[in-house]
Design goal:
The protein has 500 residues and is mainly alpha-helical. Among the domains are: 65 residues, no CATH class; 249 residues, no CATH class. 76% of the residues lie in helices and 0% in strands. It has 24 helices and no strands. α7 crosses α14, α10 runs antiparallel to α12 and α19 packs antiparallel against α20. The radius of gyration is 23 Å and the shape is globular.
Length: 500
């Protein structure tokens, strides 16, 4: 039966997404102008924000760029924000965009060395709890001195490498065979159960590492983008920032590690799935085969990549340039000394990050609508009327809640600007300002682990090529982050009240 033009257009709209999802997005687009006319821009702005979060939650049904982009385009057309505001928000986030474009691509060219190192770690540590703690703690330490997005890019590269190795074997192919790891049709029945268990195992490691980036990212001024902004407003250098935040960040760090051990040991919240013996055997065989066929040129590649990784760490630790520019340095060094000169091989490195970069700019449209419609203003005004420890605790809580539903960099920008204005006007003392700055920093970094849209690193993991392979959905990320959200947020709140 031939398809009519209307049916063809309907079929093409959002591609292979379920029909109910397509109708939901159309419903949003129809409802928003009506809401604007009836209820005004503030209510409509909140609705658009929630609709955009819905597209993130349904990322496994359809990549959020398309439906989220339609909502963002409509927000501009109906006047919730303007192209000028969107450009301003994008320009403010240019360092993050630069990071995504170049650093993630740079990590791609360190893949062989990373897979080599982490394969040794994975096969050398038998204790599931110890392995989870290692991933969480390592991600935390690296994020404190590097950048959370860079660290999560490394973790994604490692996880994708492991998954592709086993999926290839489970599909009856050799280690070096060309293979599509997203297609399960070729997976042999014997391997299906082990593949599901391996997915659960990798999901746990990925989430522990993602939480680790938050644990470490809160501690230093280079850990997260908003930390630099707060440090600049407070006039803190690297050591001052660490010491000011330490009464909150250090207790939370240890609470996070304890939570990691408990959920792994007791197999709570979908954690604790062990590495299946069959998968371990495959990875051991892969490691042996790689060792046996490794030539002098292959060893030279590993050495060059390791040297580049050392340069990367040193350059980031001393902040010799913007992170994105250091990523470009990594690309140049890693490709020059590993023989990658083909344009198509270079192009493949950018495939992972560019869709997310586009999605991030779309998100800035929503952030622009929040800013132009002053959606968070009532919360800020109310919190500034409070006094003493209750005010500091309220700042922490308000920043945490708003960051979980919005963007922690945007929330921190608004709050620190208001607090700095209050200091300059003489409404608060310098000591109050310092305490509030710590509350803003910890509030935007710790409770925001509750949702993927709370932190860029979490959102990057959700929208990465690895997430659909591991069946790591928005809802599952929220569920797996829940124990951390509760324990770390409560620990942070108590520290803000009693230790500042």
């Amino acid at each position: 039966m031939s398809m009519t033009l209307a049916q063809g257009l309907a079929k093409n709209f959002l591609g292979n997404s379920p029909n109910w999802y397509k109708l939901t997005i159309v419903g949003f687009l129809v409802a928003n102008p009506l809401l604007l006319a009836v209820l005004g821009p503030t209510i409509t702005g909140w609705c658009v924000l929630l609709e955009f979060i819905f597209t993130l939650a349904m990322a496994l049904k359809c990549y959020p760029l398309q439906p989220g982009g339609l909502l963002a385009l409509q927000a501009v057309l109906i006047g919730l924000t303007s192209p000028e505001t969107v450009y301003h928000e994008t320009l403010n986030a240019f360092p993050v965009i630069l990071l995504l474009i170049f650093m993630v691509a740079g990590i791609f060219f360190l893949k062989e060395m990373l897979l080599f190192v982490f394969t040794k770690i994975l096969l050398g540590i038998r204790s599931q709890t110890l392995l989870a703690l290692l991933f969480c703690a390592t991600a935390a330490v690296l994020s404190a001195f590097l950048d959370a997005l860079t660290v999560i890019a490394v973790v994604i590269t490692v996880g994708l490498g492991f998954y592709q190795v086993y999926h290839r074997v489970a599909s009856g192919k050799q280690f070096d065979s060309v293979h599509d790891a997203s297609a399960d049709e070729g997976v042999q029945e014997l391997h299906r159960y082990d593949l599901d268990m391996f997915r659960a195992f990798l999901r746990g490691l990925m989430m522990h590492a993602a939480i680790g980036t938050a644990l470490g990212g809160v501690t230093t001024q280079v850990g997260e983008p908003q930390n630099l902004l707060i440090a600049k407003q407070a006039d803190w250098d690297f050591i001052e920032f660490f010491l000011e935040v330490a009464p909150v960040s250090i207790p939370v760090f240890f609470v996070g590690l304890i939570t990691c051990a408990v959920v792994e040991r007791l197999r709570l919240f979908s954690y604790g799935t062990p590495l299946p013996p069959a998968v371990r055997n495959v990875l051991q065989e892969f490691d042996r085969e790689e060792e046996s066929k490794r030539t002098a040129r292959d060893r030279a590649v590993l050495i060059a990549q390791a040297a580049t990784a050392v340069i990367l760490v040193v350059a980031l630790a001393f902040h010799v340039a913007e992170v994105g520019l250091i990523g470009l340095l990594v690309i140049v060094l890693a490709t020059t000394f590993t023989g990658v000169t083909d344009e198509h091989r270079l192009g493949r490195a950018f495939e992972e990050a560019l869709p997310f970069t586009a999605l991030l700019v779309v998100f800035f449209v929503i952030v622009g609508a929040i800013h132009d419609q002053h959606l968070f203003r009532p919360v800020i005004t109310w919190v500034l009327t409070l006094d003493g420890a209750f005010q500091t605790a309220s700042f922490y809580a308000a920043n945490g809640i708003l960051s979980a539903i919005s963007d922690n960099v945007f929330v921190a920008t608004i709050y620190i600007s208001e607090v700095k204005a209050a200091l300059l006007e003489g409404a608060i003392t310098r000591q109050q300002f310092d305490h509030l700055a710590v509350a803003i920093n910890t509030g935007t970094n710790i409770p925001s682990v509750a949702t993927p849209n709370g932190q860029a690193a979490f959102l990057f993991l959700l929208t990465s090529a690895l997430a659909p392979l591991l069946r790591l959905s928005y809802g599952r990320m929220v569920w797996m982050a829940l124990p951390y959200t509760v324990t770390m947020s409560v620990a942070g709140l108590l520290a803000v009240i009693y230790l500042l």
